[in-house]
Amino acid sequence: MSAELLPGDEVEVEVGPVAHGGHFVARHEGRVLFVRHALPGERVRARVTSGGPGDRFLRADAVAVLTASPDRVTPPCRYAVPGGCGGCDLQHVSLPRQRALKAEVVAEQFRRLAGEDVEVEVEPVPGDRDGLGWRTRVEFAVDEAGRPGLRPHRSHAVIPVEDCLIASDGVRGAGALARDWPGQRAVDVVAPSEGEPVCVPVPDGEPHAPAVTEHVAVGEWSQDFTLSARGFWQVHPGAAATFVGAVLEMLEPAEGERAVDLYAGVGLFAAALADAVGPTGAVLAVESDPGAVASAADNLAGRESVEVRAGRVDRALKPLVRQGIRADLVVLDPPRTGAGKGVIADLVRLGARRIAYVACDPAALARDTAYLRERGYRRTALRVFDAFPMTHHMECVALFEPAPESD
Questions:
Q1: Is residue 396 flagged as an active site residue?
Q2: Which of 92, 135, 290, 339 can bridge 343 by disulfide, Cβ–Cβ 3.0-4.6 Å?
């Protein structure tokens, strides 16, 4: 019997398909290895980084490529190597192949968790430069000496860095990497679409974070949104407008309709919906984070047809259902874990003619797709956006409509 593999051991393996999470599946003497820095079809020497006897799988890095894929490229960033920064999973992959791999991940998650076959094309988002220079919000970790840097994959260590190539010009020019931050755990650097970049030390935290302004324009519609520099906002400069455009196109809101925006954040979708349904319509925005609720109230001020309700979505939906309140349209943009079975069960009782679901995790979206189908809604559209180039992350926007009685 061969010896069990342990961290630090190296083995030669044939690399198989992509898996959700930025790694690729390989096998060695019956053991499954999730290998980073590899590509399907390659033969590599993989060094085990975590796992041991009894574990279902091991994690590993491809430390030498013995047979290279034609889709392999030299990573543009010197920190995107085994043992280096863990932020970029796919810098060693050509950009077209990155998007094809992400499409494979989406298809696999829907096949496995929703029982559906989907064919998607991962669409680029305007605002990056061949996959670089897009990240407008970066949290740099700080080591014990006060030096800013980034963390390796699945590690609390800090690698001091002098640059980050996926960061936007505003973030790179803010000066955070050119100085030390003694006594701080991290420093957030934010380069909003309006105004100058800001550096916010952590743990000084939310109360001391300045407000920033983000401008969003979709066709003839536009608005400025104000929020805390440490509040949630899409990190790709083209993402907010792209997602709003996709949601409006799918929902086709009409004058006088009633809409519900769940996990509403600072009011991005609620604002666009409110202007689409007009003063004779109504929009309810539900958000649990106190800072986001305050920002949403400011961003939606002056629209009498909009209500911002503070509270957890699962708790806020139940009284609506008990009161028999109906809605024509629903938008939900939940956290990475998804909406979940309970929220889905309640929101379908609003009787919406269309539901737009914005998801940063295809697995969570696929699970919730199955729950929606069980409750009488079918998926009628799906778009996937490359809002996080060079990483395994992506954003999905799906449309659901009541299934015909025959279904």
A1: no
A2: 339
